[in-house]
Design a protein that fits this description.
With 183 residues, the chain is of the alpha/beta class. It folds into two domains: 42 residues, no CATH class; 134 residues. It is built from seven helices and six strands; from the N terminus they run H-H-H-E-H-E-H-E-E-H-E-H-E. The longest helix has 14 residues. The chain is elongated. The mean pLDDT is 76.
């Protein structure tokens, strides 16, 4: 093979499965008609949304790919930015979402997310407030298989949160991981 264009569609789809949608969009959209069709027909998409990428996702990407999003990662959000996002894009609109990673933000869940199987929450700003939000989030993910909660820095209040979250997840047969990261 002499170029990427010589690969089969199946291999291109496999390649896309390792990339975030904005990288696919920037790198392959408009290249030629074949890649235009491949990007438009990819069924499982992944997104890593940072505050800097928010406008790009909001204007160009979400209108055409919400229903194809399989994993969603929020990186380096502060509380006010995340609240703005959740108001404009309720998680219930992401009908095929199976993996959700939240860094520094917790959405206000108002609808069940039956397709979410993997949830990771880390770098919570206020542990006591976030702990009750986390319990609320877990109730809205009835098919959750794995939940990871990462405490960092001064938020390490291990014994109380470990017992409470472990008790909740034990009743729901969820694999539970409590991780600690030192800063």
């Amino acid at each position: 093979m002499s170029s990427l264009e010589d690969l089969s569609n199946e291999l291109i789809y496999d390649l896309f499965d390792y990339l975030y949608y904005d990288d696919i969009y920037k790198g392959f959209r408009g290249l030629n008609q074949r890649f235009e069709n491949l990007t438009a027909s990819t069924s499982r998409m992944h997104a890593d949304i940072t505050p800097l990428k928010f406008d790009s996702y909001y204007k160009y990407i979400f209108p055409e790919m919400k229903h194809r999003l399989a994993s969603l990662k929020f990186s380096n959000w502060d509380f006010s930015d995340s609240n703005q996002f959740w108001k404009q894009h309720p998680l219930a609109e992401f009908s095929n979402l199976y993996s959700l990673i939240l860094n520094g933000c917790l959405p206000s869940f108002r609808h069940a997310l039956p397709t979410v199987k993997y949830l990771k929450i880390y770098d919570c700003r206020n542990f006591y407030t976030d702990f009750y939000s986390i319990k609320h989030v877990l109730k809205f993910c009835p098919n959750l298989k794995e939940f990871s909660f990462v405490l960092t820095g001064d938020n390490v209040i291990a014994t109380s949160c470990e017992h409470l979250l472990a008790a909740f997840t034990k009743d729901n047969s969820i694999k539970f991981f409590l991780l600690f990261e030192a800063r």
